[in-house]
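input
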Amino acid sequence: MTTTAPGAGGEAAKTPAPVPPPAPGAAEDGPAAAAASGSSPWQLARRELRRRPAVRVSLGVVLLFVLMAVTAPWLGALGGWSPEEFDKSAIDPYLGGQPLGSLGGIGPDHWLGVEPVTGRDLFARVVHGAQVSLLIAFAATAIVVVAGTAAGIAAGYFGGRTDTVLSRLMDLTMSFPSLIFMIAMLSVAKDVNRIVLMTAVIGVFGWPGVARVVRGQTLSLKHREYVDAARVGGAGSWRILTRDILPGVSGPVIAYTTLLIPGMISTEAALSYLGVGVRPPTPSWGQMIAESVAFYETDPMYFVIPSTFLFLAVLAFTLLGDALRDILDPRGGRS
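output
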């Protein structure tokens, strides 16, 4: 039996056609859509990292370097040589100490060859150099992030005189020619632990950048409804800062942290290259590159090997940091 609509002239009422579902590619994709679905920053980061093959490769390289730095003593022992051990049988004393064999002495006894003149094993020195470089980079980054986050949150939340003093201190620190000042400080310091000194000096000049980012984020968060509600409910400043403000700035801070690490690695290598960083016999990539300059024509592998490790480490951390910035701080990444 057909039902007719009144005044429809006897024509059968037609049921509206169902709306087809949107095409898979038409739906909103990316960090914004995932953020709207209520994903946490870490869930969002894991989801996005799985979608990007280049980032997965970078993450694998980063984990490989970290593992190499942590297990450097065991890896060096696996190769059969310590980083300070000389092997005079691997060099030719009649050719100015050039490595015996092709490609800088690469062979079963020395997996990456040996240093000219000394005969020290390059594999052992490279893996121990990774330990030194990453230790300084991670420790200096931790100082920068902790100090910068604390200063930025305090300046943005409390405002007034606190903001003025901290902002002027940021400007003063950033106005110093940091590299020249680092060279001067490291040159006059003699009988000190070079790793600790380099970590402290690099950290002192790095915190204002993080502080500026966090201050801007805090200024935008402190007048949000949930912060006002916590304030009206009687929550103290410490509770608001740790429970409401800090989680809100964690995404940009994490993204900024991963971008700081390659800069710290490069800074340590540059200072060691200039002769004011880690001193022999402690191995460092920058120090090895500086020493290899005198042999780049006769033994190019001595220059290529530490340079390749330094390049891969900086590139992997940079690509990973760029990806995390796009995921966790998309507005900052587009600006």
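quick obs: The first strand starts at residue 91 and ends at 92.
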